[in-house]
Amino acid sequence: MGSSKIITGILIGAxxxxxxxxxxxxEKGTDTRKKISKKSADLTDSLKSKFxxxxxxxxxxxDNVKNDTEEAIAEGKEKAATVQSRIKHSLS
Length: 92
Description:
rod-shaped, 92% helix, mainly alpha
């Protein structure tokens, strides 16, 4: 989770730097507004992508834990059945 905060910070810093660079560039106001709009859209797309990657990663981890848990439960049931069978066999 810490790396996603670092990436987000870098992206925001890069976007702020790009916007400041555009604002201080000697261009017409309409061109500057178009560039700012494009940079904002790029940043938004990048953040959405990083967020989706993070959600996918968390989802994969949850699936792995779920599968591991199901396997452990199945293994426990098998062992319990084996012990139960041995106990019944030894009591017979």
